[in-house]
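Hello support,

Our group uses your service weekly, and this is the first time we've seen a run hang past the timeout. The protein is HEAT repeat protein. I'm not sure whether the cause is the sequence or the server load. Input pasted verbatim:
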Amino acid sequence: MSADADAGSGPNGPDSDGGTDPGSSYRDNRQRLDRGMAVMGGIGGDANVFIGIAPDEDVSERIIKPRLREGPYPADSVQDRLRGFVEPPTHAQCRKVLDSRVLILRAEKGTGAGTAAFAVLAERYGVGGITGLDSPDNLSRWRPSEPRGYLLQGLSPMAAASLGEVVLMELYSLLGRSGAHLVVTVPVETALPGDTMPWQVVHRPPPPVDVTVKRLATMAEAGELTAAQEADALRHLATADFTDYLNAHPLPGDGVEVAEGLRDLVVAGESATFVLDNLRTGSPAAAREALEEARHEADRISLMAAISLLPEQDRTVVERFGAVLRTHLDGRGSPAQAGPDKGPEQTGTHRASGKPPTRHDVLGPAFEDRLAAVGARLLPPRYTPALRYPIQPVGFGRHRSDALLRSLWLEYEGMADLLWKSLDEAPHHPGIELAAGESIGKVLAHATGPDTLRQLRPFAASDKRWRRRLVAYALGEMVQHPSLTGAVREQLRYWSRATPVPLRCTVAETCAGSYGLAHPAVALKLLDAVLDGPDTTVEGPLRTAVSFALSTLLSEDTNHVLVLDLLLEWQSSDPDTGRHSLAVHAVESMSRARFPRVGAPGVRRVRLADLLAEHPEHTRDLVIAALEDPATHDAVAEGLFLIERDPELRRRAHFLRLLAALAAVARTHRGVLRYVLRRHRTLAVSPAERLPS
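Update from on-call engineer: The timeout came from a worker crash unrelated to the input. Re-ran successfully.
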């Protein structure tokens, strides 16, 4: 896999290269919104409201929480992972080996080794005591810093080759001094030195039927099933059809899928046949069979592709994308057009031949009939308070979308290019960047070769934000697979130093999501590199994207200090640089109102008072640096006056303590002294504003 994405030419290159304007064939029929309200929302229930935003910028800003992290895992995330956990047969052996501080858990893909690793660490440190590690090239260089459970999922070939008895004994000593333990999960095909055998356990998954039973019990405990419904589901589970299915599908995930199918059976009244059919059609073999059956019908292939790429999107979105793709499929693989000796039906000579004219179906099949022909269906309409219209999503059964799209994209020559081309040409609808980005990311996680990441470049270099968000969602999904983490990081590092601003915007958009939350320290380095361009000021899309990324990182408490330290570094950097320009924007915004500003994308909007309350020492250093800077002095001074005038903000921000700290450094900091004297003059003029003693 190559990180040199710029070297390749993806399908329908960047916009600047003369690519077609997406949706040009529909745009004249779309409503323009210059004033009023533009409403968008994901089908799954998330909804955002934007005021007067251009249609192409009306995009999903939903943040997907990462499954893998570098840093502490939130306790609720670990608790959710362990919901319905069934101890595998090898769990007792894992406990015993972990007594030696290090456990190497080898497993086949999809057997639940990651969940087992969380469980064995949570037994010792609780659900809030687990920290994820990013795969280093050499574990001998890593040092535990706290008495926690450390989890490393996946090893690079270099790290695996360097992992021997000497390294493991050194880790044993380091972990013992820190009161910590380390679990490393590796695929069974990864070659490890022979002297690591005492630390290895080959994971064996629990029987899927046990997983189903435990998951049903968990649903009952959570109130999702009544006792009678749980008993009814267990009776169905004991039937030959479900038993045979689980015998043929032995992974823990299969047990979870059966439990969810049985819940639908007893709650929604679905038939056992329907549930089993849904389970079976999600397999790769069933996907290939469906595509083979439809290989001569452009309408069916385009509809299956649309539903798979845009799962659970509104029927109108699916229809329009399918129509665009169908135009590209119609001539694909067709025999040469008839020559001069056309038949009477083709030449219009039916009168001379005496045959009736060919009858054309001008309506075509109804949409629901077309869905039925490909095994899809309309889902119940959905409403959210922010939407002015109902949404009727379209979908397949469980996993069928993933299997179909993966087969189309990876196994049929030229189909990936046609899907990219259709995405480029189809009209944009809010939410498709999330649906398509996640779907593409899941597919590319199974891809190989240099084009795996290279094909993302045309959308990453686009001047349309929805395309950049699509790439961000795709990369966020791909990085959840340990084998791709290094390649994605290298790709983002490469783009962060690129000259085109859209590529750097894409890096920032990627940091404003699961990638940034999973790798906060790496994300902040990328944002720093993004601003290290030729720009003396940061405006427009780049400023918006970087601000969005910072607000996403600020949405989790563990990242606050990292962000504040970076803002302080940017504030202290040379004027007329992108870093300084962004710091000025952030400090001005949080001092006078909130950062990011209202109307700009943001997950958490912070005020100066909030940061002073939560991290007084780090924020104090930022305040001093900002008061020293002529570009931000007035804004910060105004912000401090706002805090001082509000009794509640004054109390929360520990203002008296801050004031004492500022007074202590005023003699050596001209900007701080200027603020202190200005405050003194203000209080002299308005004694009523004097702080209570």
